[in-house]
Amino acid sequence: MQQNKPIEAGLSPHLFWDVNKENLDWEKNIRMIVERVIERGTYKNLLLIENIYGREKLVNVVKQISYMNPKDIMFVHIYYNIPLEQLKCYTKKLLNQNFSN
Predict the structure, then answer these.
(1) What are 53-100's pLDDT values in tens digits?
(2) Sign of torsion over alpha carbons 14, 20, 26, 27
(3) In this structure, what is the dihedral angle of CA atoms 31, 32, 38, 44, given to the nearest 10 degrees?
(4) Structural domain boundaries enclosing 30
(5) Is the N or C terminus of the chain more exposed, i.e. has fewer CB atoms within 10 Å?
């Protein structure tokens, strides 16, 4: 890994306003880091985490995210070429819609 600390490596500090940035760890906090970059990060942040984790590992984490807004779902679907059915957040959303009808 390039830097041990995500903020020192160049991730936007505003993504982690509510946590102690000194305690952020690339591996222990991978899911939170990926979620926040997808949700509120810049393209530069996205390229940085792709470089750190590798595209395959990143895609596997993205598939397991349990909530994303519709815009972010479509972004990861198109950008990473992930079938919608492989996104946990998408299948969960469909399941919830079926129960509410």
Answers:
(1) 999 999 999 999 999 999 999 999 999 999 999 999 998 877 666 545
(2) negative
(3) -100
(4) 6-100
(5) C
